[in-house]
Write a structure and sequence with these properties.
By secondary structure, the chain is of the alpha+beta class. It has helices at about 10-25, 25-45; strands at about 5, 50-55, 60-65, 70-75, 80-85.
Amino acid sequence: MTLTVIWSVQARNQFLATLTHIAKEDPLSAERVHKRVENSLKLLCDSPKLGVPAPTTSVRTYAVPKTGHSFDYRLVHDQIRIQRWYRQRQKPAITTE
């Protein structure tokens, strides 16, 4: 089964804002974060249950290595739906989508 990654509008905007913020200080670091996220999504497409189960039913959390960021996602049919992107220091909100 081939999985497709779908970002919610909010998660995509949060991710792009993070990259923009990092790029202002260090464009190379922003590029590294972007690559690490891409690599993480490829891993999830191969093994969608790599993330840790979240308190909300069917939601999993994946900590992107060496970035200080995580995202919440759901596996729905043949899609990995990214619901939320956030700094790991933030208190995660419970996702109800």
